[in-house]
Structure formats: structure tokens, C-alpha cells
Amino acid sequence: MPINIPNNLPAKQRLEKENIFVMSERKAIHQDIRALEVAVLNLMPNKIDTETQLMRLLSNTPLQINITLLTTASYESKNTSREHLLQFYQTWDKVKDRKFDGLIVTGAPIEQLPWEEVEYWEELKNILDWSRTNVWSCFFICWGAQAALHHFYGVEKYNLPQKKFGVFLHDKLKRDSFLMRGFDDKFQVPVSRHTEMRKEDIDQVKELDVLSDSPESGLYIVRDESTRRLYVFNHSEYEADSLKKEYVRDLDKNLPIKMPENYFPDSDPEKEPVLSWRAHSNLLYNNWLNYYVYQSTPFDINQID
Questions:
Q1: Do the Cβ atoms of 32 and 261 come closer than 8 Å?
Q2: Is-catalytic flag, 237?
Q3: Where are the chain's structural domains?
Q4: Residues near 154 by beta carbon (within 8 Å), at least 6 away in sequence
Q5: Pick the catalytic residue: 51, 196, 237, 246?
Q6: Integer Cα distance of 231 and 140 in angstroms
């Protein structure tokens, strides 16, 4: 089954060219089924790229999903047109009376800023508090995961001596976890972070479990089973060229950046990178939607509390 997204969202045309099944709003309303309601708080500067990446993964499931795209009211993106935001996005204050089966909060390129210096920090804290009673399961990505862990449990982040950047081998630690069902024992994940959270701090919080990490890049997936919250520090949603774009961008800005590790064939940036994480990415989002959302969310969405 497809995801239901606005008829003229730019991601729709691109995904259809990839033979990914998306459904128009017009067709979806004629299906007699309780679609899942999933909100995406997109904090990334280039919102079109991020929404396409996430829609691709959310569409690879037998479930019908209605997507609500959210942006911040206290900060307006400078890298996405105002017209796009007005046409496809809502601010949280417009949906705060609704219930959602799932909420995805993306990363943001602000991880080295202290929490209180983030322009929309107070708004984000309000959204996180609202999610306790209005969202069944949350999926936090990269800086979004760090921000949520800090807000809910007081876990701190640490600056890395240099950006952790590349594609790294990760381990499946919890074999009995529904989220990790079907995962290989080791699998590749793209990483792009200036900061980290540490396992010794996570271990101090009794509600949290580490489901996956990497000897090279640290924590990957942390879970709070009691609240159905997932904290995913790395970028399984990335496309094959996402790290390449970041690398070229930083080079063009004369920023200190090393070539992403384990990424370009023969460590040659003139060669096109190989996509080696798509199967794991699809499985991660499928398992979240199936086991953490669909299998347990109330049929009457208004019973979420």
C-alpha cells in the first residue's frame, strides 16, 4: 500500500519515476481503511530533499499512511521557498489539537549550538511535551534524537574532535527487539555528525536500551520501550550521493572537512559512491511502522493519550 501525499508535492513525481507506489489524496479518500496518521517535523534546511528521502522509506510498506508535514513557526527556513512551505507545511500550533499515530523529527545542522541558542528550542520543547499525549510512537533522527533525549532525560551531547563522516559498519545488539527483526548481524549506515551522545550516559537511564552501535562511530539506535520512542543518531534515510553533496558543500565553503570514510570507491571522490544501506533503511522504517505503530496504536485515534 502507498503513502498518501499532496497531489503536487515535488517528491511525488520523483518517487513515481522510481516506481514507488504513492497515492493521490483524491484516490485515498475512497479506500475504506483507517490510514495511519504520521507527522514529519522537518528541521533540515533543504526540506524537499529530506521529505523525498523519508517518503521513499515510508512508502515501502503494506500500510496506508497520511503524511502531515510540519515546520517551525519560530524560525523560517532560508533554503526552502516560502511558497513551498505555505503550500505543503503546517506549523505545530495548527495541529496541536490532533492525534497522530507516529511523529518523525529530523536532524538539523545546528548540533554544535548550545540547546538554548537554537532559535526554535522553546517551540521544540513544547512539541516534545505535546507528543507525550498526542502521539503514539516517535522516531527521532540525528540532532532531533539528541534534542529529545536531552529534553526527556537530561542526557548531554559532546563535541567530537572532528566530524564523524562516512559509512560505517554497525552491530545488532538486541536480537529480541522487534525493531531489529530481519537485520543482519552487521550492516552499513551513513554517519554525519559533529557531536555524539555516549553509551555510559544512556546506561544511567533505566528506561533506555541501546539496540545498535558501531565500534567506529558510536551509538546508532536507542529505544524507550515504555513510551515507544526511538532515537536514531545516524542517517539511514540518506541517498547514495547525500554524503558527497555535504563533502562538496563544505569544500566549497573552505570548511575543514575530510573525505567521508568507506564511501567513495577506492577513496576516489571522482568515482560515484555505491548505495550499500538501502535494504537496512527500508527494514528499519518498515519495522517501526509495523511493530511500534500499526500493531499497537488504538483503532480510534482519539484514544491516544
A1: no
A2: yes
A3: 3-241+279-303
A4: none
A5: 237
A6: 5
Among the ranges given (79-88, 105-114, 241-250), the one the predictor scored with the smallest mean pLDDT? 79-88
Per annotation, catalytic residue among 51, 142, 196, 246: 142
What does the H/E/C string look like for the chain? CCEECCCCCHHHHHHHHCCCCEECHHHHCCCCCCCEEEEEECCCCCHHHHHHHHHHHHCCCCCCEEEEEEECCCCCCCCCCHHHHHHHEEEHHHHCCCCEEEEEECCCCCCCCCHHHCCCHHHHHHHHHHHHHHEEEEEEECHHHHHHHHHHHCCCCEEEEEEEEEEEEEEECCCCCCCCCCCCCEEEEEEEEEEECCHHHHCCCCCEEEEEEECCCEEEEEEECCCCEEEECCCCCCCCCHHHHHHHHHHHCCCCCCCCECCCHHHCCCCCCCCCCHHHHHHHHHHHHHHHHHCCCCCCHHHCC
* pLDDT tens digit sequence for 160-213: 999 999 999 999 999 889 999 999 999 999 999 999 999 999 999 999 999 999
Q: What count of Cα atoms within 13 Å lies in the side-chain half-sphere of residue 299? A: 1
Asked if 235 is an active-site residue, the reply is: yes
Cα gap 245→286, rounded to integer Å: 27
- Nearest Cα neighbor of 243 from 268, 218, 219, 260 is 260
What CATH code is assigned to 3-241+279-303? 3.40.50.880
The C-alpha angle 169, 161, 255, rounded to 5 degrees, equals 95
Give the amino acid at 237: E
Task: Quickly count: other Cβ atoms within 10 Å of residue 246's Cβ.
Answer: 19
37, 170, 196, 235: which one is catalytic? Answer: 235
Per the annotation, the verdict on 225 as an active-site residue is no
pLDDT in tens, 239-252: 999 999 999 999 99
Residue 26's pLDDT is what?
A: 55
d(CA 8, CA 16): 12
